[in-house]
């Protein structure tokens, strides 16, 4: 899911020849059908509009990742510090990606190194989240199962 905008941007930056435009358009339609509420209407989209929509999609996805990661950061308190650090590092990375996509007005504003690094960073975040899930699968915190403990009030 997160990798799709990066693929679109990389394909688009390679040039505007017909074959690449067709591939980008097909990727966009596939994504639209899968993830949009309308299910994709199949209408023809101009390259400039596709570029703008791909950047908007990247911004929205990184924004959603940022919101989700913030919730995870607060939820992992009490877990080993190594896991907490990886989740915090993931949040920082997502914030950087969101800032890069938000600042871009066109694909030309995104360097190839930003796109390459973004792929690597997203893969690392995925690895960290899988590690967190593996840990939780084997070591579920008691407070997550039964809730926080509080003293009972005595009825007189």
Structure description:
Its main location: other. This is PLIN3 protein. InterPro entries: Perilipin. One of its GO terms (cellular component) is lipid droplet. It comes from Ceuthmochares aereus. The radius of gyration is 20 Å and the shape is elongated. Helix 3 runs antiparallel to helix 4 (81-103). 72% of the residues lie in helices and 0% in strands. The model has no long low-confidence stretch (mean pLDDT 75). It has a domain at 50-138: Four Helix Bundle (Hemerythrin (Met), subunit A), CATH 1.20.120.340. The longest helix is centred in the middle third of the chain and has 29 residues, at 47-75. The chain has helices spanning 3-13, 18-35, 47-75, 81-103, 112-138, 142-146. By secondary structure, the protein is mainly α.
């Amino acid at each position: 899911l997160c990798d799709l905008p990066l693929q679109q941007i990389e394909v688009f930056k390679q040039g505007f020849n017909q074959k690449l435009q067709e591939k980008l358009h097909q990727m966009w339609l596939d994504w639209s059908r899968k993830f949009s509420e309308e299910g994709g209407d199949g209408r023809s989209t101009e390259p400039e509009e596709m570029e703008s929509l791909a950047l908007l999609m990247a911004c929205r996805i990184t924004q959603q990742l940022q919101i989700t990661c913030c919730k995870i950061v607060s939820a992992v308190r009490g877990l080993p510090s190594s896991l907490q650090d990886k989740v915090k590092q993931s949040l920082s990375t997502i914030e950087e990606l969101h800032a890069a996509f938000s600042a871009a007005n066109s694909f030309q504003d995104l360097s190839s190194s930003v796109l390459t690094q973004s792929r690597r960073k997203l893969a690392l975040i995925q690895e960290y989240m899988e590690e967190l899930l593996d840990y939780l699968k084997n070591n579920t915190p008691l407070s997550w199962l039964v809730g926080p403990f509080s003293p009972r009030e005595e009825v007189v």
